[in-house]
Design brief:
Number of domains: 3
Largest sheet: 9 strands, antiparallel
Helix content: 10-25%
Number of helices: 7
Shape: elongated
Structural class: mainly beta
Radius of gyration: 32 Å
Length: 461
């Protein structure tokens, strides 16, 4: 295939054709011998070249590419033919901390001219002592390799950081040619940036000159928000009983609700991590019931425990012990429940109540137990009913199909072995699918004050 001269550009990411990454598919995990995997390359310079072939001449591009060897502590550049590489894209990062260096754009924003002195002043005022990094950073940082364990044959995932570039600081600059300071074709300045970084291989500091097109400017987290220091805000939350309202990594629809999507979760912060050039918050995710991380690059909504969670059952208050059966479950409300299934497995999950159900095992025995129902003689085909809560702990059984003479029943029905009382729910632990839970197997319940607001729609605590 003939190469279009505009196909490859300076600053773009490419890989050797034997590399497992293709186009936007950079999430592929590398198995077997990962050392055979070549680095992600950043195009530093382009030369056009004619290539003789049997059918005539093809025009190809010779690409001067740059990568970093973590093992050797060196930036390495190599010339490679455009016929031998593929362009790739990294789309899983929203780049809230990484920005293309565009001096002309910056001058436009400042209403400055494009003279050499204006470019120099811009660099001195806005870029000196700022952090930068090679554009391959996110792909190399998220590159994974997998191997099987000796014990059970399961796959173990680890990071593959052989070519991870370091974070550097701009300490100087220079025009490539003092006589011809601007590109004749684009009019852009021909400027290189001098960068310093700690060389972990040599155990000292190193310096090198880079064309600015191959670098990202790394913005510091404390400068992301005009109103607050995001890092300090999270740090202070770790010492208090604070919860966050966070975006769910994989939103899903609630079964039975075509217009309702679970897009957010409640998170309890546990630690702050530093991942190469950015900070992350470790938190417990109430939807997935698992540990998770999120980049600290936004002002997350937060609130105290009593602004999110309501009553807890069982509990001890004023010398009275409440039980799970004391919880008056409400349709469309959300609860955290701890559940023991028939196999004695205990799990915690968030559920949305759809229906309150009561299953009567033996109708005749049931009507004999409760005198007010002695005249009731429903068909044997009906033994599943809805119920709701009345006064003094009583409940009422309801049916749209069967007539019930006196439907009020005492609270003792929760201990009746002839009935099973169920919650029909959307279970968030199971991607919003229908799940039924026997109330007598629920060990603990915590009310969520406004679950619809927290999980389903925009809400401020």
């Amino acid at each position: 295939m003939k190469i279009n001269m505009s196909e490859f550009k300076i600053g773009e990411l490419i890989v050797f054709k034997s590399h497992p990454y293709i186009d936007k598919h950079t999430e592929i995990k590398i198995a077997a011998y990962s050392d055979y995997t070549s680095p992600v390359l950043v195009i530093k310079q382009i030369k056009e070249k004619s290539q003789n072939k049997e059918k005539g001449k093809d025009i190809v591009q010779e690409l001067n590419c740059l990568y970093y060897s973590s093992r050797d502590g060196k930036f390495i550049d190599r010339w490679i033919s455009s016929n031998l590489v593929n362009k790739i894209f990294f789309t899983t990062s929203d780049h809230k901390l990484l920005f293309d260096i565009d001096f002309k754009r910056d001058l436009d924003n400042l209403n400055k001219d494009y003279s050499a002195i204006d470019y120099e002043n811009l660099i001195k005022e806005s870029y000196f002592n700022k952090m930068v990094i090679l554009k391959s950073v996110d792909i190399e940082l998220n590159k994974k390799k997998v191997n099987r364990t000796k014990d059970n044959g399961e796959l173990v995932e680890t990071n593959h950081l052989e070519f991870l570039p370091p974070v550097m600081t701009i300490v100087g600059y220079k025009f490539i040619d003092e006589k011809n300071k601007f590109c004749k074709n684009t009019g852009l300045p021909l400027i290189d940036l001098k960068c310093k970084w700690y060389n972990s291989s040599l155990k000292t500091f190193s310096e090198l000159i880079f064309p600015y097109h191959v670098l990202y400017h790394v913005k510091e987290v404390q400068n992301l928000s005009m109103d607050k220091d995001l890092l300090s805000d999270i740090s202070e939350s770790l010492t208090g009983n604070t919860f966050f309202l966070l975006p769910l990594k994989k939103p899903f629809e609630l079964e039975g609700y075509a217009d309702k999507e679970i897009a957010r979760t409640i998170g309890y912060p546990t630690a702050i991590l530093y991942k190469h050039y950015f900070y992350q918050m470790n938190y417990f995710d109430y939807v997935t019931q698992n540990k998770a991380t999120i980049n600290i690059d936004d002002d997350f909504e937060k609130g105290a425990e009593n602004a999110i969670f309501g009553k807890k059952y069982p509990s001890y208050e004023r010398s009275y012990r409440s039980k799970v059966s004391d919880c008056r479950f409400k349709i469309d409300s959300y609860y955290v429940i701890v559940y023991k299934d028939m196999y004695e497995n205990i799990t915690r999950r968030v559920v949305k109540i759809r229906d309150l159900l009561i299953h009567i095992k033996k109708i005749k025995e049931f009507t004999e137990t409760y005198d007010q129902l002695s005249s009731w003689n429903p068909s044997k085909n009906f033994n599943l009913f809805n119920y709701n809560y009345g006064v003094n702990g009583m409940i009422s059984i309801i049916s749209d199909t069967v007539s019930i003479p006196d439907n009020r029943l005492p609270k003792s029905i929760f201990n009746d072995e002839n009935v099973e009382i169920f919650l029909n729910t959307n279970c968030l632990l199971r991607q919003g699918r229908y799940r039924n839970f026997n109330v007598n197997r629920i060990l603990e319940v915590i009310e969520i004050i406004d679950g619809q607001g927290f999980f389903e729609s925009s809400y401020t605590i």
